[in-house]
Amino acid sequence: MKIKYLIEKEFKQMIRDSFMPKLILIFPCIMMILMPWAADLEIKNINLCIVDNDHSDYSRKLINKINASEYFRLKEIAPTYTEAMESIEKGSIDVILEIPPFFERDLIKEKNTNVLISANTVNGTKGGLGSSYMMEIINSFAGEIQQEWKSADNKAVSAVNISIQNRFNPHLNYKFFMVPALMVMLLTLLCGFLPALNIVSEKEIGTIEQINVTPVNKFTFILAKLIPYWIVGFIVLSICFLLAKILYGISPVGNLSTLYFFALIFIILISGFGLIISNYSNTMQQAMFVMFFFIIILILMSGLFTPVASMPQWAQTIVFFNPLKYFIQVMRAVYLRGSGISELMPQLAALLSFAIILNIWAVVSYRKNS
After folding, report:
1. How many Å apart are CA 274 and CA 254, to the nearest integer?
2. Which helix (H) or strand (E) holds 208?
3. Is the dihedral of CA 238, 240, 243, 247 positive or negative?
4. pLDDT, tens digit, for every residue of 290-325?
């Protein structure tokens, strides 16, 4: 029965804190409302400069088609390529499209012509995607021209018909990819930070010494510290599920119980990690800086923003020991593919291993009589 009163004490402390209940409710709401829009890696509003050396009907059609795209913002039509390059060097232009002289003539007579795309790749992602978007528009324009010629003279024009099938996310909506991973980040921040700060705050004000002189063993004490935050974690996760459905129309293809099962393991895992840091920290400042250091690395190297396969080999080796990677894989697999536990056994084994190791470390490193 000792643990019952300790848990009751933790909840009373949490409720008496005027800031904590607000943080638990408002933080996930703000994160789910703002982050999917801010953390969208789809590039839009790319500043474009066009150098039209042909001034023909076909060059104007191409310019109008590009200008109608939501990805590009036509900022300038330069008379020469040299002047366009000056705009890139100033940083006001991201992509240059140069249409050569005799663009229309070559297109009609030779059935072939060239254009030049120059991208500012100081921001490699923006430059690379800008070039890819431009190529797609030009290919689409070429396809429309072929259809015009085919309709005009009833002759078949050689073309390659490409069928694209996007599995699991047919509309390439980046929020479907990002929102499940943001839930993992929320659980990490709330269930990792809060237990660590809670114990360190008791060290600073001296109340932990009162516990140390009681007959309560350290396993019971740690469990009583963790259970309230496990409950908070499930409340936050449920709020996230609801907001994802209401705000973005995103609901898991797979079973919701699978997500809760893996979430239970992850919450135990990350709260144990928070306790380890609190055991080695003497002040709130120490705990906050150490947690901040680890959380930033864990989040950035989890596959949340950058695919793990795109990282260098040494980074992929480090990511192998990152528990966030495995839970993000679970969230995305269940949400987008409808995976079940049987398909997620490698992630289950990894998360269970981390949970056991980190919580044993947390119990062993806590010195009740220190």
Report:
1. 30
2. helix 208-212
3. negative
4. 888 888 888 888 888 777 776 788 888 889 999 999
**N-to-C CA span, the chain:** 25
User: CA 366 from chain center: how many Å?
Assistant: 34
Look at residues 266, 286, 267, 264 and name the one whose alpha carbon lies nearest to residue 199: 286
Nearest-angstrom CA–CA distance, 217 and 198: 18
CA distances from 363 to 73, 189, 219, 256 (A): 58, 21, 6, 31
Q: What is the DSSP string of 134-168?
A: HHHHHHHHHHHHHHHHHHHH--------------S
From start to end of 39-104, where are the E strands?
A: 46-52, 72-77, 95-99
CA–CA dist 368, 212 (Å, integer): 5
Of the chain, the percentage scoring pLDDT greater than 70 comes to 83
Tokens 């659980």 -> residue: 187
- Tokens for 252? 């898991």
* pLDDT (0 to 100) of residue 31: 76
CA 80 to chain centre: 41
pLDDT score, position 161? 39
Q: Is 302 helix (H, G, I), strand (E, B) or coil?
A: coil
Mean pLDDT, the chain, rounded, equals 81
The token pair at 160 is 């390659």
For residue 30, what pLDDT is reported?
80
Q: Map residue 45 onto helix, strand or coil.
A: coil
Output 266 or 27, whichever has higher pLDDT. Answer: 266
Q: How many residues appear in the chain?
A: 370
The predicted model gives 36-65 an average pLDDT of: 83
- CB proximity list for 224: less than 8 A, separation 6 or greater: 3, 6, 7, 9, 10
Task: Look at residue 193 and tell me whether its pLDDT is greater than 90.
Answer: no
Q: What's residue 212's pLDDT? A: 62
- Give the residue among 63, 81, 74, 43 at the shortest CA–CA distance from 137: 63
Contact status, residue 7 vs residue 221, Cβ threshold 8 Å = no
